[in-house]
């Protein structure tokens, strides 16, 4: 019998989750030393296959550059490992002897990992490492256009983990991914937390699943070249960053904002670094390729070389062209050069003042990059601090390559392939997501203070009782006066008892 592809995908997902849950229950008993040995083995195995996985990813997706994807795989394995290897994630992880508070780590359980087509192997390695470090299991849903390379990365990680003593099934995946299976995965009763890296719709689905979720938003990153910048260095880094893996990292610069008094210097240096400046006619033709429908990015340009994209628009450019640039003045969903392009294409905005430069950056972020990142080139620390205070982003990269600086390759930021956008972007965290986001912490606290609890005042209680007794006695006497002496068949004591009973009844009500 031939089964429907969606049904096969869903059943495979259910089987993977079941195995992961069982494996994680066993993994829960592992010591910190055992966990660390497993994580080390996985990181080394993945790092050793960085080039092979990079080739697979480029061949399968048709996106990016092998040499650059290799670097991303190295960041996702070695750099991530180095950043988490000394963290305590098992048992007692902290003790405050002064305040007598002890912190104890415990895992979420089973992680659902959603992997994008733009970074299919590096993200899979990264999410596996931080899950295993925290005694979680993980089940991954690859992107359908990158399933083979993603699954291969996961097999490398799984084999290395098992070889180091991990339970089989701790790392699982869907080899025939479908949207139906992914949607059911993130809602599965045995999934405890979601790590979603992908399109906006998928991230929203993760947040609406009813599960704890770490999702990331889009990154329409502006780069501001402020008048005090070292123009030569700034432009060189910007072009290197934009052309890195053909612009597939979400933290890559998307639009250049430059002060008027250095604009000509910037244009000259852009050309010197392999940029092709489009004329108005060429800009018009490329706009149709970038966004065939208003606000919609053409997926066919994502991760493609600048020369290939120009050819798609019928534009002849030098063979060594690295980025395509068009001057722009407008920002909006209907302005193709102003949206996130995930390819080596830039809009260039010239600002007449510092305030106008900030306004351009704000508009670009509000269009589709709130909460993510901003890049800045300046030698004025005051400008850097002011931008950091005012811009609605979670990270600002100063005088470095934004694309790989944001993921921790050229900065002191935590190495990560999932970059939170905070409340600005509707995310639960503004951090570079790492191992610490996949543990819970319970706290044992001893009493260290002796509070003085005031007791209720009883000073006027006897007076109230005495007054109450007098009122009852008066009522009894009045009743007896109304009754002739020869008919005193009920004793005063009996009447008193009856009156008290009635009073109590009404007091209770």
TrEMBL record:
Its EC number is 1.2.1.10. Coiled coil: none annotated. PANTHER family: ALDEHYDE DEHYDROGENASE-RELATED. Residues 11-271 form the Aldehyde dehydrogenase domain. Gene3D superfamilies: Aldehyde Dehydrogenase, Chain A, domain 1, Aldehyde Dehydrogenase, Chain A, domain 2. It comes from Rossellomorea oryzaecorticis. InterPro entries: Acetaldehyde_DH_acetylating, Ald_DH/histidinol_DH, Ald_DH_C, Ald_DH_N, Aldehyde_DH_dom. Keywords: Oxidoreductase. GO terms for molecular function: acetaldehyde dehydrogenase (acetylating) activity. This is Acetaldehyde dehydrogenase (Acetylating). It holds the Pfam family Aldedh.
């Amino acid at each position: 019998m031939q089964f429907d592809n969606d049904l096969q995908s869903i059943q495979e997902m259910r089987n993977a989750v079941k195995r992961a849950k069982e494996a994680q229950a066993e993994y829960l008993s592992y010591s910190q030393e055992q966990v660390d040995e497993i994580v080390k083995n996985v990181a080394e195995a993945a790092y050793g296959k960085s080039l092979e996985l990079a080739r697979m990813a480029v061949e399968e997706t048709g996106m990016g550059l092998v040499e650059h994807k290799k670097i991303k795989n190295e960041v996702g394995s070695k750099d991530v490992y180095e950043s988490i290897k000394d963290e305590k994630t098992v048992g007692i992880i902290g003790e405050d002897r002064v305040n007598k508070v002890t912190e104890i780590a415990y895992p979420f359980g089973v992680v659902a990992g959603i992997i994008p087509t733009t970074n299919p192997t590096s993200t899979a390695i990264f999410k596996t490492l931080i899950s295993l470090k925290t005694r979680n299991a993980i089940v991954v849903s690859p992107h359908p256009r990158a399933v083979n390379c993603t699954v291969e990365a996961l097999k490398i990680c799984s084999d290395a983990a098992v070889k180091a003593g991990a339970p089989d099934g701790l790392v699982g995946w869907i080899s025939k991914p479908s949207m139906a299976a992914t949607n059911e995965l993130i809602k599965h009763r045995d999934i405890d937390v979601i790590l979603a890296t992908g399109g906006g719709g998928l991230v929203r689905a993760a947040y609406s699943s009813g599960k704890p979720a770490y999702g990331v938003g889009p990154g329409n990153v502006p780069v501001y070249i402020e008048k005090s910048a070292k123009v030569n260095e700034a432009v060189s880094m910007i072009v290197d960053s934009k052309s890195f893996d053909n612009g597939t990292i979400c933290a890559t610069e998307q639009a250049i904002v430059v002060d008027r008094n250095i604009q000509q210097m910037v244009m000259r240096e852009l050309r010197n670094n392999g940029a092709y400046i489009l004329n108005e006619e060429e800009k018009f033709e490329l706009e149709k390729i970038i966004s065939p429908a208003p606000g919609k990015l053409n997926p066919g340009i994502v991760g493609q070389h600048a020369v290939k994209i120009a050819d798609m628009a019928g534009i002849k450019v030098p063979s060594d062209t690295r980025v395509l640039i068009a001057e722009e003045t407008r920002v909006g969903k209907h302005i193709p050069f102003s949206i996130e392009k995930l390819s080596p294409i830039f809009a260039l905005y010239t600002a007449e003042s510092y305030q106008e430069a900030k306004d351009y950056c704000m508009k670009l972020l509000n269009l589709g990059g709130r909460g993510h990142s901003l890049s800045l080139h300046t030698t004025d620390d005051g400008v850097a601090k002011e931008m950091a205070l005012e811009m609605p982003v979670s990270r600002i990269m100063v005088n470095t390559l934004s694309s790989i600086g944001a993921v921790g390759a050229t900065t002191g930021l935590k190495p990560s392939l999932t970059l939170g956008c905070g409340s600005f972007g509707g995310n639960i965290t503004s951090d570079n997501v790492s191992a610490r986001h996949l543990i819970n912490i319970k706290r044992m606290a001893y009493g260290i203070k002796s509070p003085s609890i005031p007791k209720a005042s009883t000073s006027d209680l006897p007076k109230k009782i005495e007054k109450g007794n007098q009122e009852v006695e008066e009522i009894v006497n009045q009743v007896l006066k109304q009754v002739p002496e020869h008919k005193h068949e009920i004793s005063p004591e009996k009447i008193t008892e009856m009156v008290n009973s009635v009073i109590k009844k009404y007091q209770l009500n």
